[in-house]
Amino acid sequence: MGMNAVYRGPEDCPSVIPVFPLPGALLLPRGQMPLNIFEPRYLAMVDEVLKTNRIIGMVQPDADNDPLANVPKLYRVGCAGRITQLAETGDGRYLITLIGIARFRIEEELPPVNLFRQCRVRFEPFANDFTARFGENDVDRAGVVKALRDFVNAVHVKVDWRGIEEAPNEALVNALCMMSPFGVREKQALLEAPNLKSRAEVLIALTEIELARGGAGSDSTLQ
Fold it and tell me: Where is the Lon N-terminal domain (predicted)?
């Protein structure tokens, strides 16, 4: 598809995409993720996708990896994003912004032909991701906001409450998940939640667990 492509369903998406393994990086449909690209293999990846569809698959390395492994195993579920902004720095880096399109399931990793990793993926298991605000009426918004208030009070961070009040449920839940200070396993659980309602429930549960442990530290920011 071309530079101004619109991805309305799985059939619009490529079956092979480059993947960017990044622990703790959670991209969700229609979410925005800024990235600072400086490693040669990922600079090459960006150069390559700029020639075609601008799509990159964000995926976390499996938390149970052997720390000495040269090529870490990947979780099977990630989220594809499209580069919507790009700036070059004077020292050879790219500053890019990805907008989440939809989640995918990795079918197989392809033999390396470039500096970066590529996978054959399927978007069909997550077809509802392509519909903006799908299922958001089922979200326990009051529960999400209460969990956020409790968390904010515990770690003493500033939050744009007006923005919170005005945000639709999908944007609210996904933005809070993406900004949350949780670990790799927890972020993967948020990513793999079947729908927005269950993602909100996982977010609430994880927040309650974190608060019971004494909070996530005062360096957290949820702005």
Answer: 17-211
The structure tokens listed for 3 are 């530079």
In contact, 209 and 202? CB cutoff 8 Å: no
Mean pLDDT of 123-142: 97
With 0.85 as the threshold, say if the pTM is over it. yes
| 218, pLDDT greater than 50 | no
Second CATH level (architecture) for the domain 10-130: Roll (2.30)
Question: Which pLDDT does position 5 carry in this prediction?
Answer: 72
Q: Which residue blocks in the chain are alpha helix, DSSP H?
A: 40-50, 141-155, 161-166, 169-179, 184-192, 196-212
Which position has the higher pLDDT, 186 or 5? 186
Q: Helix (H, G, I), strand (E, B), or coil: what is residue 79?
A: strand
CA 139 – CA 132 distance, rounded (Å): 14
Task: Give me the residue spans of the domains in the chain.
Answer: 10-130, 136-216
Average pLDDT over residues 28-53: 97
- In order of 22, 27, 39, 176, the CA distances from 60 in angstroms are 5, 10, 17, 18
In Å, how far are 82, 105, 207 from 176, measured between CA atoms? 20, 23, 11
